[in-house]
């Protein structure tokens, strides 16, 4: 913020203090950060998630130990990049303007697939698959075998 105002002040031949006063007091601008925008679910996806959550709640009410038997997993691509810091992505906006939106970057120089399985106590299995390798039934079956061994231990 200070750097931007200083550069602008130099370009229009005024002091930094004058530029700050113009931006803040006269124009009503404030420095704001972009907010990360979460995924938007469809109504059908919301209903499905609600139904599954209610099923788990009912089973938990019948048997509190049920939660200890749930194993879940997820996979995501981990990209090799340095995203802009929050400070780097700040921009001048009028106080009444909506904050800018910042979408997560999807392209990168390289990436690996991260697969994580966990239960109520924490991670059970963490695996990385290189970008050049393909996920096929053999790879996934081996992952599930590793998961089974992790659960038994």
Automatic annotation (TrEMBL):
Q: Which Pfam families match?
A: Transposase_1
A GO molecular function term, named singly, is: nucleic acid binding
Q: Which InterPro entries match?
A: RNaseH_sf, Transposase-MT_Hybrid, Transposase_1
Q: What is this protein called?
A: Histone-lysine N-methyltransferase SETMAR
